Amino acid sequence: MLSSLPPREREIVDILYERGAATVTEIGEALSDAVSGSAIRAMLKRLEAKGFVAREASERGFLYTPSVPEKAASKSALSQVVRVFFNGSPTSAAAALLGMQGEMSGAELDELEMLIAKARDGRMKP
After folding, report:
1. Which is the most buried residue in 10, 12, 19, 43, by most CB within 10 A?
2. What is the spatial distance between Cα 100 and Cα 109, in angstroms, rounded to a whole number?
3. pTM recorded for the entire structure
4. What pLDDT, in 10s, does the model give residues 5-24?
5. Do the Cβ atoms of 45 and 37 come closer than 8 Å?
6. What is the Cα–Cα distance from 50 to 41, expressed in whole angstroms?
7. 8 A C-beta contact, residue 5 and residue 52
Protein backbone atom coordinates (compact mmCIF):
# COMPACT_ATOMS: atom_id res chain seq x y z
CA MET A 1 0.00 0.00 0.00
CA LEU A 2 1.96 3.07 1.18
CA SER A 3 5.22 1.20 0.84
CA SER A 4 4.72 1.23 -2.93
CA LEU A 5 4.94 5.03 -3.03
CA PRO A 6 8.08 6.89 -4.04
CA PRO A 7 9.88 8.38 -1.00
CA ARG A 8 8.76 11.99 -1.54
CA GLU A 9 5.11 11.00 -2.02
CA ARG A 10 5.33 8.84 1.09
CA GLU A 11 6.76 11.79 3.01
CA ILE A 12 3.79 13.93 1.95
CA VAL A 13 1.29 11.30 3.10
CA ASP A 14 3.16 10.95 6.40
CA ILE A 15 2.93 14.73 6.88
CA LEU A 16 -0.82 14.57 6.28
CA TYR A 17 -1.23 11.76 8.83
CA GLU A 18 0.75 13.80 11.34
CA ARG A 19 -0.91 17.18 10.73
CA GLY A 20 -4.34 16.31 9.39
CA ALA A 21 -5.67 18.54 6.61
CA ALA A 22 -3.00 20.78 5.08
CA THR A 23 -2.51 23.19 2.20
CA VAL A 24 0.27 22.95 -0.38
CA THR A 25 2.16 25.71 1.46
CA GLU A 26 1.89 23.91 4.81
CA ILE A 27 3.04 20.65 3.25
CA GLY A 28 5.99 22.46 1.64
CA GLU A 29 7.02 23.93 4.99
CA ALA A 30 6.94 20.49 6.61
CA LEU A 31 8.99 18.69 3.92
CA SER A 32 12.56 17.74 4.75
CA ASP A 33 13.94 19.98 1.98
CA ALA A 34 12.67 22.73 -0.31
CA VAL A 35 10.28 21.68 -3.09
CA SER A 36 8.38 24.07 -5.35
CA GLY A 37 4.65 24.48 -4.90
CA SER A 38 4.03 23.22 -8.43
CA ALA A 39 6.02 20.04 -7.73
CA ILE A 40 4.04 19.49 -4.52
CA ARG A 41 0.75 20.01 -6.40
CA ALA A 42 1.86 17.50 -9.06
CA MET A 43 2.67 14.90 -6.40
CA LEU A 44 -0.63 15.55 -4.63
CA LYS A 45 -2.46 15.12 -7.92
CA ARG A 46 -0.76 11.73 -8.41
CA LEU A 47 -1.53 10.74 -4.82
CA GLU A 48 -5.15 11.73 -5.35
CA ALA A 49 -5.33 9.66 -8.55
CA LYS A 50 -3.83 6.67 -6.69
CA GLY A 51 -6.44 7.05 -3.94
CA PHE A 52 -4.08 8.01 -1.13
CA VAL A 53 -5.10 11.67 -0.78
CA ALA A 54 -8.39 13.56 -0.94
CA ARG A 55 -8.75 17.25 -1.83
CA GLU A 56 -11.37 19.64 -0.52
CA ALA A 57 -11.87 23.35 -1.21
CA SER A 58 -11.73 25.69 1.78
CA GLU A 59 -11.28 29.40 2.47
CA ARG A 60 -7.52 28.74 2.79
CA GLY A 61 -7.38 27.06 -0.62
CA PHE A 62 -7.40 23.34 -1.26
CA LEU A 63 -6.93 21.19 1.80
CA TYR A 64 -5.44 17.74 1.37
CA THR A 65 -6.09 14.83 3.72
CA PRO A 66 -5.11 11.15 3.66
CA SER A 67 -7.79 8.90 2.11
CA VAL A 68 -6.51 5.66 3.61
CA PRO A 69 -7.20 5.35 7.34
CA GLU A 70 -3.93 5.52 9.25
CA LYS A 71 -4.63 2.23 11.02
CA ALA A 72 -5.06 0.41 7.68
CA ALA A 73 -1.90 2.01 6.30
CA SER A 74 0.06 1.08 9.43
CA LYS A 75 -1.18 -2.50 9.32
CA SER A 76 -0.22 -2.81 5.65
CA ALA A 77 3.26 -1.38 6.27
CA LEU A 78 3.82 -3.59 9.29
CA SER A 79 2.66 -6.66 7.37
CA GLN A 80 5.26 -5.94 4.73
CA VAL A 81 8.02 -5.50 7.33
CA VAL A 82 7.04 -8.80 8.99
CA ARG A 83 6.96 -10.56 5.63
CA VAL A 84 10.30 -9.16 4.43
CA PHE A 85 12.43 -9.06 7.59
CA PHE A 86 10.90 -11.79 9.76
CA ASN A 87 9.95 -14.44 7.19
CA GLY A 88 6.27 -13.72 7.82
CA SER A 89 6.50 -14.52 11.53
CA PRO A 90 4.67 -12.02 13.77
CA THR A 91 6.17 -13.79 16.78
CA SER A 92 9.71 -13.09 15.57
CA ALA A 93 8.79 -9.48 14.89
CA ALA A 94 7.26 -9.06 18.36
CA ALA A 95 10.34 -10.62 19.97
CA ALA A 96 12.58 -8.22 18.04
CA LEU A 97 10.47 -5.24 19.13
CA LEU A 98 10.54 -6.33 22.75
CA GLY A 99 14.30 -6.78 22.51
CA MET A 100 14.72 -3.19 21.31
CA GLN A 101 13.12 -1.77 24.42
CA GLY A 102 14.96 -1.57 27.69
CA GLU A 103 12.73 -2.02 30.69
CA MET A 104 9.00 -1.95 30.14
CA SER A 105 6.63 -0.32 32.60
CA GLY A 106 4.04 -2.35 34.43
CA ALA A 107 1.31 -0.63 32.39
CA GLU A 108 3.00 -1.61 29.12
CA LEU A 109 3.36 -5.22 30.25
CA ASP A 110 -0.29 -5.25 31.38
CA GLU A 111 -1.35 -3.94 27.96
CA LEU A 112 0.65 -6.64 26.18
CA GLU A 113 -0.85 -9.33 28.40
CA MET A 114 -4.35 -8.02 27.64
CA LEU A 115 -3.66 -8.07 23.88
CA ILE A 116 -2.34 -11.63 24.09
CA ALA A 117 -5.42 -12.71 26.08
CA LYS A 118 -7.71 -11.12 23.48
CA ALA A 119 -5.84 -12.90 20.68
CA ARG A 120 -6.21 -16.22 22.51
CA ASP A 121 -9.94 -15.65 23.10
CA GLY A 122 -10.48 -14.72 19.46
CA ARG A 123 -8.78 -17.85 18.20
CA MET A 124 -10.60 -20.15 20.60
CA LYS A 125 -14.08 -19.01 19.54
CA PRO A 126 -15.70 -21.00 16.73
Report:
1. 12
2. 15
3. 0.61
4. 888 998 999 899 889 899 99
5. no
6. 14
7. yes
